[in-house]
Known about the structure:
Layout: H1 2-6, H2 14-38, H3 45-62, H4 69-84, H5 89-95, H6 104-114, H7 118-131, H8 135-142, H9 149-175, H10 180-186, H11 188-203, H12 209-226
Helix pairs in contact: 4-5, 6-7, 6-9, 7-9, 9-12, 11-12
Amino acid sequence: MWEEIEALGRDVKLDVQLTLLLEARRMTERSVLWLLRRRRPPIDLDATVKEFSGPMRILSTRFEGALRGQLGAITHSTWAGRLAAGVDESLAERSSVWPLLHTAFDIIDISARFQTDLISVADIYWHIFDALDVLWLWEGVGALPRSTRWETQARSALRDDLQIALADLTEDVIRARTDVDGWMARNERAIGQLRAMFNEVRRGEMFDMTTLTVGLRQLRNLSMSTS
Length: 227
């Protein structure tokens, strides 16, 4: 990926290339963290590559199609902006989902365990994300400070908890043998309580470690109450 970015040359502004390099690095870091936290050591690298490389290639080019609502619009806008900046179409499309692609590990894992179509699992995952309006929580965690080692670790832990909650909810929809709308109808009361708490937190317009932890706890409570 780095070689592909560096090959853009002078036709693409340096700040665009630096942004791409940084996003590729963050995606790599988050992917490594997923493996370290979800796989017991020692990790068999050859087996891990065999497990994830094929499905990851599929998702990397079809990920945007699963995104909905505001997040889908943001991703499409990023893609269009990079095209306008001179980035070739293939790299512009693939790089637009790099900030989200580490979530594909959970999607691939769920697909394999439940023997469910990969793209269908991705659709469920991001449909839940949009239907429960999780974007504010996602962006709030991403905006937390990381000027110290402990701040960085705390932010990483919150992001990990958020991904676990989304994966658990995705599994619950699959187990319920229904679509997301049907699952939400079955759990209308619990989802109503979640939305009420989300609205209360968001009215404060201050997203720090405390308020984001409260919001995340409500999401985890939903995943436990619907399972």
